[in-house]
Amino acid sequence: MDFRGQRILCLGDVMLDRFQYGRIDRISPEAPVPVVRMVDSRAMLGGAGNVARNIVSLGGEAVLVGVVGEDAAGREVAALIAASPGLVDANVRSATRPTIAKTRIIAGHQHVVRLDEEVTAPVSEADAAAARARVSAMLPGCRALVVSDYAKGLLSADVVAHAIAEARRLGLPVLVDPKREDFGFYRGATVLTPNLREFRAAARARLGEAPLETDAEMAAAAHALIGEAGAEAILVTRSEKGMLLVEAGGGVHSVPAHAREVFDVSGAGDTVIAVVALAVASGQALPRAMRIANAAAGVVVGKLGTATLDEAELAAAVEADAGEDAEVAGKVAASAGQAMAVVEGWRRRGLEVGFTNGCFDILHRGHVTMLQAARAKCDRLVVALNTDDSVSRLKGPGRPVNALEDRQAVIAALRSVDLVLSFAEDTPLDLITRLGPDVLFKGADYTEDQVVGGEVVRARGGRVALIELVPGRSTTNIIARSRAMAG
User: Does pLDDT of 460 surpass 70?
Assistant: First the structure.
């Protein structure tokens, strides 16, 4: 979870969040309302600005693109950005639009009232054009794009489409916190992170009044919305129910909430998308990124205001919430694209990546020994499994004995394995070409010239390594003995 050097562009509605803290001692004699005796006040970046704050507080770098006015609140926003190391001010200064400001009056940890100063009509074409130009200029050199939509007028169809197209042209993941019911508005995004209310509104707009209570019902709706948005995944934040991640490839993952004590949920969604963006940019698979973000959310809701957390707090929260099941699930990539992001993150850290493949139908000593030996010869080991249809074509109609999901879980549980994914073709040549491993491992029952993908790896400066096998151990033999014993 080293997020240093991960530069994220945050595009969206920038706000100034003011918090006035006090206590209530009496009711006003002028009207039946409480009198709040003010004790303290704070101001901080809100909206897309809070996403950026979370990124830099965790060691990353953030470029903030929004629209602020040429007013006192706008100058306060600029001062807050200038006082935040790692945060780059790329905001558009508008001569015609005020800065969005929200003032919350809080007494005894309870919100008494919120005062909003804002204009939510679309920004001028000149301001929108300036925002598009800032995105084009600042996005190169970034590792991801976050689009933080608060429906305050900046994120028109042209601005969103331009930003997503620019990110995709650069091969960057795009994470969107949506506010519109039409998820197709964000077409081309990698991940959408709606809260439960936003997800249900989008699902019902698309599917009608279908039930959305169980994980299975929500997953079915999410798959429809993923198709509409052309996205890879939807991550639904569900407050006390935790998070649900649904991937285009069929993977469904959930985690329970981990808040120890809830004081203020303001900005928790900003923390989630910031952490997911950092995790994905640094090479984490989405299920693992979700678990890290869930741990982070559990920390910030225990603080007052639009809070952030630092690297030490996040590390402690992840360690406290980690369990064997979470670690195993976090190793499974749902697509080649996710695996490529993980491998690229490893490569940026100077790690040597190994690759091997097979059916791994019934795990036995030969498999375990081979994987241990391979992992000892590289820094990270990727294992690619044939899908069920692919196994049937290679091994016959009675195979596999264990379905892909089970085979992935078993292989991911091995300490020697760092990442697991699947391929539907008869050979992993396309996968090897896309991932570009440094070392390609195969059993010593092959020769180097027989190893699929060997030429591709060697052409990139890598090598092929043959691993000695344990004699007499194979899934075919195990099945044959089982059938003989059964009579």
Answer: yes
Contact, 78 vs 89, CB < 8 A? Answer: yes
Three-state SS for 237?
strand
Name residues whose C-beta falls within 8 Å of residue 129's C-beta, 6 or more positions apart in sequence: none
Q: Are 160 and 178 in contact (CB under 8 A)?
A: no
Half-sphere CA count of 242, side-chain side, radius 13 A? 14
For strands 252-255 and 243-247, give the pairing.
Answer: antiparallel
Asked whether residue 263 carries a pLDDT value surpassing 50, the answer given is: no
List phi, psi (to 5°) of 440: -110, 120
Query: What's the first-to-final CA gap in the chain, in angstroms?
Result: 53
Peptide bond into 400 cis (omega under 30): yes
What is the model's pTM? 0.67
Task: Enter the tokens of residue 126.
Answer: 């000149």
User: Which tens digit of pLDDT belongs to each residue from 148-207?
Assistant: 999 999 999 999 999 999 999 999 999 999 999 999 999 999 999 999 999 999 999 888
Read off the pLDDT of residues 416-428 as tens digits, 9 standing for 90 and up. 999 999 999 999 9
Average pLDDT over residues 215-237: 92
Which residue in 89, 127, 264, 270 is the catalytic one?
270
Q: Give the type of residue at 452.
A: V
The DSSP output letter for 468 is P
Report pLDDT digits (tens) over 97-144.
999 999 999 887 678 999 999 999 999 999 999 999 999 999 999 999
What is the pLDDT confidence band of residue 226, given thresholds at 50, 70 and 90? very high
Instruction: Please give the backbone phi and psi of residue 71, each rounded to the nearest 5 degrees, phi first.
Output: -140, 180
The strand pairing partners of 35, in sequence order, are 26
The tokens describing 417, both together, are: 């394995």
Beta carbons of 432 and 452 less than 8 angstroms apart:
yes
56: Cβ contacts below 8 Å, ≥ 6 apart: 62, 84, 85, 86, 87
Confidence of residue 52 (pLDDT cuts 50, 70, 90): very high
Residue 324: φ, ψ to 5°: -60, -40
Whether the CB-CB separation of 462 and 439 falls below 8 Å is answered with yes
- DSSP lists the bridge partners of residue 37 as 23
Q: Examine the pLDDT at 454 and tell me if it is beyond 90.
A: yes
Written as six digits, the tokens of 125 are: 């074409």
User: CA-CA distance, 64 to 179, in Å (whole number)?
Assistant: 19
Cα 148 to Cα 152, 162, 172, 310, 425: the distances in Å are: 11, 15, 16, 21, 38
Give the CA-trace dihedral at 323, 327, 329, 333, to 10 degrees.
Answer: 160
270 is catalytic: yes
Backbone torsions φ then ψ of 303, nearest 5 degrees: -115, 160
Length of the chain in terms of residues written: 487
Instruction: Say if residues 314 and 299 touch (Cβ distance below 8 Å).
Output: yes
